[in-house]
Amino acid sequence: GLGQAPRLMLSEVGLNFEEVRHTRETWSKAKQEGVESGLLSFGQVPAMEYWDGEGKKVSMVQSVAIMQFLAREHGLYGSDNAEKARIDVLVGGVGDLRKRYGAMAYSKIDKLEDALATYKEELVKWLPFFETYLSKGEHVVSSFSFADVMLFDLIDTC
Asked: How confident is the model over 44-92, as pLDDT tens digits?
């Protein structure tokens, strides 16, 4: 799910973290408590509570926002605005293809065969875009970035 890329990123930057998973039975109560406390701003996960080097707590939701925050905190968001823009372009493309994956993955069972065929067509169309965009080097920018984690997670999932 959308929490995998942040988990990978936390591991990549060497941070210890506690993962809290919910079942269908525990989610309703956890969601209500999270919304009331302000942790789950939009009533959904993933969510992260992070303490910076000065001990200041930062809470956030939305997987891309979590990734961007961690990337800025740990130097994985490019070295200048041009690199940041290339990272953002790649992350946007990852999000576009992930939406297509979600349409297939969450389709009704009686529509799954058609949804899978459509998704396969989308993969054939989209994967060459990524290949072309990345053909200039090993990474989208001069060094490893959070876009690499996002793309890895997409390919691993899809």
From this structure: 999 999 998 899 999 999 999 999 999 999 999 999 998 999 899 999 9
Residue 4's contacts (CB-CB under 8 Å, 6 or more residues apart) are 153, 156, 157
120, 112 Cβ separation under 8 angstroms: no
What is the distance between the alpha carbons of residues 32 and 27, in angstroms, rounded to a whole number? 8
Which segments of the chain are extended strands (E)?
Answer: 47-51, 57-61
Neighbours of 64 (CB within 10 A): 17
CA-to-CA distance for 120 and 126, rounded, in angstroms? Answer: 10
CB 6 within 8 A of CB 67: yes
